[in-house]
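Chapter summary example: a protein plus NAP.
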Amino acid sequence: MRVAFLGLGIMGHSMATNLVKAGHEVTVWNRTPGKIVEGAAIAPTPAAAAQGAEVVWMCVADTDAVEQVLFGADGVEQSLTQGMIVADSSTISPFSTVKFAERVRSKGADYVDAPMTGSKIGAANGTLIFMVGGNEASIDRIGPLFAAMGKKYFRMGDVGKGQATKLAMNLQIALIFEGFAEALTLATKLGVDPQKLLALIDATMVKSGVVEYKGPFILHRDFTPNFPLRLMHKDILLALEAAKEARVKLPGLETVEEIYEMATEDGNRDLDYAATLTLLEKWAGVQVKSEAA
Ligand code: NAP
């Protein structure tokens, strides 16, 4: 398929690379010039990238970024044609998604929200999992692109439901990680080797994908961003905003949001969200590291 890929960050660069590898004809654009994807053409603007594309795929930071890419100066809107599909893998507001879709559809194109999970490693390996909202026929048409970038996609309902699901998913990741980080901090302070705690967790019902993924990074004290803290904080705020709008109370997430606020003030916004652990360590006066390390 002829695909315009917009946004070459941690996730987008690997996703566009996997589209090229699967044989699709890809044109890329990134706000800050200079990023390339081997085998893909480069366009100077979103409108130029979208020109003649069957599918425009976005993966940018947040709701404002998607709005600018779509409707700003030299935005995708200028190049929308009948039958084109715009897909968005950024994590953004479900409410704005519905508005963006209406505006795109008024130009004869269709809109699918397709946020994903799997982080940097999933993007690199082509094993992302997408949660998708939109028309069945459009989702079917872009099936080969999901297959090139991921291992599975789930149809969650009409447009916006992919984003709503993603907020419910990241809410859990933030809370599960917070539980893990608090357990590591307490156990370390009480003199337990965190490596031994990890082995125990793995043998019990407490085990989780979050712990399995983040455990080794923590033991190596590697907080380089796979999923930057600033983006998880954005997702927490999006979930709280959606909850307020829907009159749902999320007391656990409200508390965790305060920790992200403090971790940001502490200078951790561009590190991985696992760096929220360092705040707990500071308060406890310990550092989580294995005796063997
Ligand atoms: P990232 O590395 O920070 O990349 C962000 C991308 O958005 C960059 O290409 C950046 O361009 C672009 N951008 C930011 N503001 C923009 C604007 N106003 N106009 C146009 N482009 C703009 O982020 P990422 O980790 O790839 O994440 C991208 C999206 O996927 C986010 O919504 C994130 O929440 C979501 N996501 C991330 C992960 C993960 O583990 N990393 C997992 C699932 C979902 P520049 O190069 O010019 O800054």
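Key point: Residues 7-12, 30-32, 59-62, 64-65, 68-69, 90-91, 116-117, 119-120, 226-228, 231, 235 surround NAP (CB under 6 Å).
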